[in-house]
Amino acid sequence: MSGAPIVKLITLDSRRWRRPRPSPEPLDAARTAESGNPDGSGLGVVPPVMEASAGGDGGLPVRPSPPLTVAVERLGRTVVLVADGDVDLYTAPVLHRAIESALDAGPRRLVVDLTLVRFLNSAGLEVLLAARRRAGKDTDLRLVATTRAVWRPLQVTRLHEQLIIHASLPAAIAAPSRTRDEATTSGST
To answer: What per-residue confidence (pLDDT) applies to 7?
Structure first.
């Protein structure tokens, strides 16, 4: 029996497991130092209790979000936005402002190229949905998505059924226009 593996099953009961609560003393000391009042009252910014660091000195490792860059290119009445970076909670406003300023110009077609996007979360999906709503019937909104990082969130949320998505930028630019007016008139013939 010495060669038989020993199997030990461990079950974790999440109702019995409790997270350790941080001690309030460092926060109170920081609040007192910032406000100057011994009771900790007063307005001001409370400095962080634990500094985050990339090393193993006890701090939590923090990966700052890489910046999102959006390049704008105009091709007649078509505006192409090329996003490069991660589209998350912190960088989604950059994409939102770029789309809004492009739509303010009133293009016939707006193509948002997401081929260089490495991460897309719900904040980015909301920006794309807001762009679709804002584009309305006057602007033909197209997306270019080729990577799993972009395709997977679109498929899981079923937004790929609501948005027009192409596999390449030339295909998105050359595709026939499908604004809502044209879609309703072509469906009635």
So the answer is: 55
155 in helix, strand or coil? helix
DSSP states along 114-149: EEEEEEE-HHHHHHHHHHHHHHTTTSEEEEE--SHH
Please check whether residue 121 is in contact with residue 90, taking contact to mean a CB–CB distance below 8 angstroms: no
pLDDT above 90 covers what percent of the chain? 55
Q: How far is CA 80 from the centre of its chain?
A: 19
Tokens of 77: 């009445």
- Rounded to 5 degrees, φ, ψ at 74 are -110, 130
Q: Which domains does the chain have, with CATH numbers?
A: 23-48 (no CATH), 69-184 (3.30.750.24)
Least confident interval from 4-18, 27-41, 103-117, 173-187: 27-41
Burial, 96: exposed, middle or buried (Cβ in 10 Å; 0-12, 13-18, 19+)? buried
Beta carbons of 111 and 169 less than 8 angstroms apart: yes
Q: Count other Cβ atoms within 10 Å, centred on residue 118.
A: 13
Look at the pTM and tell me if it is higher than 0.90.
no
